[in-house]
Design a protein that fits this description.
The complex is a heterodimer of chains A (410) and B (423). Chain A is an all-alpha fold. In chain A, 78% of the residues lie in helices and 0% in strands. The two termini of chain A are 60 Å apart. Chain B contains 20 helices and two strands. The two termini of chain B are 62 Å apart. The chains are: A mainly alpha (410), B mainly alpha (423).
């Protein structure tokens, strides 16, 4: 068949068989490689699987045809399951089932030009090929982004103290998995103390940055603010300055402040330690609050506050019953940013804090640098779950904020 | 109304001229805005700007010599170092008196450590002679010149005195010279000995690796951003979650993931061995070197590149590319000549952001970088926590800060400080 522009029928057996054969040969290469490194062996595996799949494709397409597509895919899944179980136990079966189904689906997809569905009919073959190649590239980048994070989830259930998949895990056997790293996290004193410290420090730091930051953002969004640019630059600076430099500066500063508070004010050492870290974290969270809240205030309709004043509300009442509910989504997402900044911060704690203020990230950092224990993976999994929850909340809030602003006129 | 009142100034309801009344309202508004901003501004100024300022000052501060040896410094002021002769008795006398005080207050070892940065051997000189001098009496045991040289021959060397004299000033450029692999010698600034020249190389490596990371990020981010920008909003929002999830995940989680993946007994090596691509005894070394740092940091900083490029691409009207194609351009020409130039601002913004973040990174290089993949920030941390050479740490930090501020200024020029968006 020529490459017809209408793309309605245009299926050609030689083309299908060539594609299927070469894909099968390439897919079989790793299997061959894992068996032996001799060229003949690898070649024979590749050519053998190519021949088998070409034969399968030919039989399927000429004998079964488009009508039996559903049955053919199901049969593929069964064959894949059987072959996989024979070769590699239950794990192999679980991998073989989708492989078989996808292989059969692929044969039909190629032959009946499923790849042109949903694409403009005027595209040339090269454009179609590029379309899929491009999707593949993007898929690989997404894989690079997500896979490292997802890989640690199953690894955290490892029954062994290894950082890789054990043969038992790959065979999906129950004894390959356990909750022992989670148990360790919840019973080990050091992990628990650091977790508690994080839960003490982060909320207080967040409260400071949110209350001061929201006030300042409201001030900055007024129409006439002198030195607006320089003030903004100063308030944003904790985000711009590299953490190591902030930490260095704070190291010198807070050692003097700590001495002063312990010496002149006679405060307790542990308490002073917490105060130092809370203040340091609060200042790091401020830029995020400022940015999110000012972004919300950009769309704020000023006539609402004027109307409230007109109706007799004093400024405080106006703020709490008119302005606050409208900018609340921005304030909350700013708070979440500030919280995660503090909850995730290592460098400043490392420099400013002492052992009794050890936070969770600090504990993880020492664990990673010195003796890496698999408990870290359990902690990491818990943190990933927390960040998914936070991400969802921020996303919902953003939508709500947009909806609210869409409601207000102007 | 008479003509006279009409010609006068317009009055507000309370009888004051409208102009003045408006000016007062404006002033009130400004004051109210400033009052709202003031608490935070004061807080940031005290707990952030002051520490940074202190750090900048510490990079030139040099009080220790002048504070610990005040008499000696005064006596040495007249000594001509270039004459090639040891100082006279008054200087030795002053030193002995200073040292007796310093040993009593246990300051002499600190001073020894400080001067040891400049000339090796000074630390042991001060420590060893401190023990003997503590038993002396400033009046009875004089003269001190021969006695001191007896205690330690270091006092008989002209270079010792030259070092003390050179570093007795209260403000010194010495730490900055050290930071660029030079040293302040009695004969002026000189290059460090070959074996001690590591910092310039480290600065170079930091910049070079940050550039590599930035370029890798551009290459990986561009196609993804393009895809996100050209999909229907519902699909692209779904895919955007895949970009935002790493962005929200703890930095340490991502770093530990890479440590687990890249290890010699890690997941990637295991997979490669299983596939037969790598022999079991020749597992790849992917961690504790530059490769590990570059891969892990590219992964960590990639969202910071995707998001700015994406937000710029969203604003590019698709009609331009369609127009170019209908005028006969091929796909490539339409992309390269029409679409790409419009997306360059996004690349610029993302690149500067990623570069600024990369150049000051500490945690990830520390964990996956080994010795070959560390950045200048790791050196700063080393000087803060281990070598305790805080002056040098402050000088290195100052140089890094200046570099970042220059880049940030460029960012402000290109993107604008107010356009920083999150999530």
């Amino acid at each position: 068949m020529d490459d017809t522009r209408d793309g309605s029928i245009g299926n050609s057996m030689p083309f299908t068989l060539t594609v299927v054969g070469s894909v099968a040969a390439v897919a079989a290469l790793p299997v061959g490689l894992s068996g032996s490194r001799e060229l003949e062996y690898i070649l024979s595996i590749a050519l053998g699987s190519a021949a088998i799949s070409v034969l399968t494709a030919f039989i399927l397409l000429s004998a079964v045809g488009l009508g039996g597509r559903g049955y053919a895919i199901a049969a593929g899944a069964v064959v894949g399951a059987v072959l996989g179980t024979v070769a590699g136990g239950p794990g192999g079966g679980m991998a073989g089932t989708p492989t078989g189904a996808v292989a059969v689906w692929f044969i039909y997809w190629i032959h009946y030009r499923g790849y042109r569905n949903g694409l403009p009919p005027y595209l040339s073959s090269r454009q179609v090929l590029w379309y899929y190649a491009y999707r593949l590239i993007c898929g690989l980048v997404f894989f690079f982004l997500i896979a490292p994070i997802l890989v640690i989830l199953p690894l955290s259930f490892n029954a062994q103290d290894f950082f890789t998949f054990t043969p038992e895990m790959l065979r999906f056997e129950a004894e390959g998995y356990s909750l022992k790293h989670y148990r360790d996290f919840f019973t080990n004193n050091e992990w628990q103390r650091s977790f508690r410290n994080s839960l003490i420090i982060a909320p207080i730091a967040t409260a400071i940055s949110v209350s001061l930051g929201t006030l300042a953002a409201i001030g900055l969004s007024q129409s006439h603010v002198p030195f607006k640019r320089s003030i903004m630059a100063i308030l944003i600076s904790p985000m711009i300055v590299p953490l190591i430099i902030s930490a260095t500066g704070m190291f010198f500063f807070y050692s003097q402040v700590g001495n002063w508070m312990e010496g002149s004010l006679g405060l307790e050492k542990t308490f002073v330690g917490y105060v130092k870290i809370v203040l340091a974290h609060a200042v790091l969270g401020i830029p995020f609050v400022i940015i999110t809240v000012t972004a919300t205030l950009v769309g704020f309709d000023r006539s609402l506050t004027r109307a409230a004043a007109n109706l007799g509300a004093n400024p405080v009442r106006t703020f709490f019953s008119v302005q606050m509910p409208l900018i609340l989504p921005g304030v909350i997402s700013g708070a979440l940013f500030a919280f995660i900044t503090s909850f995730d911060e290592v460098v400043v704690v490392l420099f400013v804090g002492s052992a009794s203020q050890k936070t969770l990230p600090w504990q993880m950092f020492t664990g990673l640098r010195e003796q890496i224990s698999p408990t870290i993976l359990a902690v990491a999994t818990i943190l990933v779950v927390i960040s998914i929850a936070l991400l969802t909340t921020v996303e919902l809030l953003r939508r709500r904020s947009e909806a609210l602003r869409g409601m207000s006129p102007g | 109304m008479s003509a006279a009142t009409r010609a006068g100034p317009v009055l507000a309801a309370d009888g004051t001229p409208l102009k003045r009344s408006l000016a007062r309202a404006l002033r009130m508004q400004k004051i109210r805005a400033l009052l709202l901003v003031a608490p935070l501004l004061v807080f940031v100024l005290i707990t952030f700007v002051t520490p940074i300022g202190q750090m900048l000052f510490r990079s030139v501060e040099n009080d220790l010599v002048a504070d610990t040896l005040p008499l000696t410094v005064a006596a040495l002021a007249d000594w001509d170092a270039s004459a090639g002769e040891l100082p006279e008795e008054p200087v030795f006398n002053a030193l002995a008196r200073d040292m007796i005080v310093a040993v009593r207050e246990k300051n002499h070892t600190k001073l020894g450590t400080r001067l040891n940065y400049e000339r090796t051997g000074m630390s042991s000189l001060f420590r060893k002679s401190g023990r003997q001098i503590s038993r002396w009496d400033p009046e009875e045991d004089a003269p001190f010149r021969e006695r001191l040289i007896d205690v330690h021959e270091g006092w008989g060397e002209i270079d010792t005195w030259k070092t003390i004299q050179t570093h007795s000033r209260r403000l010194t450029p010495g730490y900055f010279l050290n930071a660029v692999d030079m040293q302040l010698t009695p004969d002026g600034p000189m290059a460090q000995p070959e074996s001690k020249r590591i910092l310039i190389k480290l600065f170079g490596r930091t910049v070079w690796m940050s550039l590599v990371i930035t370029v890798t990020c551009i290459i990986l981010a561009y196609p993804v951003a393009y895809l996100l920008a050209n999909l229907p909003l519902r699909k692209s929002n779904l895919l955007l979650i895949m970009v935002l999830l790493p962005f929200w995940t703890s930095l340490l989680v991502r770093t530990s993931a890479w440590k687990v993946l890249l290890q010699q007994q890690g997941v990637i090596n295991d997979t490669l061995v299983w596939l037969g691509l790598v022999a079991d005894e020749a597992r790849l070394v992917m961690i504790n070197n530059q490769f590990g740092t570059i891969v892990a940091m590219t992964h960590i900083l990639l969202p910071f590149m995707i998001l700015p490029i994406y937000s710029v691409m969203r604003t590019i009207p698709p009609a331009y590319v369609r127009a170019a194609k209908s005028l006969g351009a091929t796909d490539w020409t339409a992309f390269w000549r029409v679409y790409f130039p419009q997306s360059v601002p996004g690349i610029g913004a993302g690149s500067i952001l990623v570069f600024i973040l990369a150049i000051g990174y500490y945690i990830t290089p520390e964990i996956v970088g080994g010795t070959k993949g560390v950045f200048i920030s790791n050196r700063i941390a080393y000087h803060i926590s281990f070598s305790l050479n805080w002056g040098l740490a402050a000088a290195l930090g100052t140089i890094l800060l200046v570099a970042v501020l220059i880049l940030y200024w460029c960012y402000d020029r290109i993107v604008g400080i107010d356009n920083v968006k999150l999530g």
